[in-house]
Design goal:
single chain, five-stranded mixed sheet, 20% strand, Ribosomal Protein S5, domain 2, 39% helix, 344 residues, four-stranded antiparallel sheet, globular, Alpha-Beta Plaits, alpha+beta
Length: 344
Amino acid sequence: MRHVAEESSRRSCRGRALPRVGLLGNPSDLYGGKGLAFTFDDFEAVVTLEAAPTVQIDPGAAHGIDGAILTALPAPPRHPDFDGAAPLLLSATRGFVRQFPEIAERNAADGFRITYQTDIPRQVGLAGSSALVVATLRALSDWFAVELSPFDLARLALDAEVEDLGIAAGFMDRIALAFEGALAMDFADSLEESTVERIDPGRLPPLYLAWDPDGGESSGTVHAEIRRRWLDGDPEVRKAIDIFPGLVDEGLACLETGDFAGFHAAIDRNFDTRASIWLIGERDRRMIEMPRSTGASAKFCGSGGAIMGSLSQHDDFPPLAKELAAEGFESLVPTISHRSGKTS
């Protein structure tokens, strides 16, 4: 990362982030594994900074901040006791201040208001919470004229969620949100040592997404118990986690050769492996079973509440969407993103 000589003279800055879908490998990013993922353009989170007398973060919200100074921001409520976006915006701002204390000291008395808009479905495994954190960091970097590399941005986002909110989280969501597009990721012990390669979206088979508009549990809650068992050396968990990276290798090989049937099978095995160690809720199970009964593949996009899969052909989506809607699920064909997530 590098500083730009002068702070931004703008009185309003915006940061944007897109939802993420785990194609294969998730959740092995918590365990030094691999992952395929993409961001898509059908939803977005946008965070806006505007000049104000003091630091105001989602003012009026249950956990909002109104009247603070930059160097004395209070700690947000720890996960899972918070509700809404304010703790996410606050944790991102505190993380930015920790990273750039000289900027905070120099601008401690200068205020701004942080507000947000998002239409990313909540708590369905599309990284909607992380998108708000990344969008906030993008807006802050523009406001203070700091250039962040994608890895810098991903690390700041992860640190903010883990340190301030106590969320059990891995690298994949933040890397995907920072780089955007379709990505193959190989996770090392640190973000900077991990590798990211872009995938041509044109090589992917026809895909669909579906989600439960009623949402589900937060990802941190879902991951915490499995993480504890893995740290305790649980052989069942260790065996399952070791399978995910191989599915990524299989998937990449299938994309190289145009083997959509093989890619389809890897998607199904990814879910089946996850289901061998995770408790799958009734609604999530039903959402998985419906596409599979039609010949489509299906797996979670993230931690549950939303699924993705491959279709034999694009024409298979309308009848599947109709069946899903009859059960109360929403669905779409994702528009995989190609653009950068820079501030505007």
